[in-house]
Amino acid sequence: MMKPRTLLLSLLCLAGPALADTLYKCTDAEGRTTYTNNKGGAKNCAVISRDKPISTYSAPKAQPNAPTPGDFPKVGAGEQKARDGDRRAILEQELASEQKNLDEARKALAQQEAAGPAGQARSPERLKPYQDTVQLHERNIDALKKEMGSLK
Prior knowledge:
- By secondary structure, the protein is mainly alpha-helical.
- Among the domains are: 19-50, no CATH class; 81-149.
- It has 4 helices and 3 strands.
- The chain has helices at residues 4-15, 77-114, 118-121, 124-149; strands at residues 22-27, 33-36, 45-50.
- It has a 3-stranded antiparallel β-sheet, with no helix packed on it.
- Helix 2 (77-114) packs antiparallel against helix 4.
- It is elongated.
- Residues 16-20 have low confidence and may be disordered.
């Protein structure tokens, strides 16, 4: 008689093939179809499913950089220089406009800080929109300066 431990190990060894990750569709000589995960000695079997890893997503393959087509429109150096000059002029106009708006916003904030009763003038809720406007124009000016700094 086998010891329980030996019996358990024997059963575990036999159970391994039952945990196969492939599903087969087998047809016998009489035309009967059997679905099994243990093909054994059966013939006329076709694989119909294989277990896949939990994540079946694969990253898309990197596409090689395609060369620029020969008929692609090209910009000459002179034309590009003119475009860059136009861009710089537009950015300078926007910067001047934002600077003017910032000055006006600062004046409005100063007027609000000086106006009204002493307790009301120092009210953060009342001054917040004016402070926000000043900060907005300051951020716009910083962004425009950064953009102008990246020009060639």
